[in-house]
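Q: What residues go here?
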């Protein structure tokens, strides 16, 4: 596969009105963490946080007996 045809190496499109694409941008946390600049979604970030918490809780339960 040629590098120029690899979809992972393609540049991301520039979005002029990010509030139209991501309506949750108006919240203070979204502005603070600059989700629109990183093209991230709030739901993805929440899922990642919950996954990390559950993983750490599992590690503490399993390795807590040592």
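A:
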């Amino acid at each position: 596969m040629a590098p120029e045809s690899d979809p992972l190496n393609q540049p991301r499109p520039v979005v002029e009105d990010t509030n139209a694409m991501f309506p949750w941008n108006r919240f203070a946390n979204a502005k603070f963490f600059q989700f629109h600049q990183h093209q991230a979604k709030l739901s993805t970030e929440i899922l990642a946080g919950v996954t990390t918490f559950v993983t750490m809780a599992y590690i503490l339960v399993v390795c807590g007996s040592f």
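A: Context that may help when evaluating the design: The chain has four helices and no strands. The radius of gyration is 18 Å.
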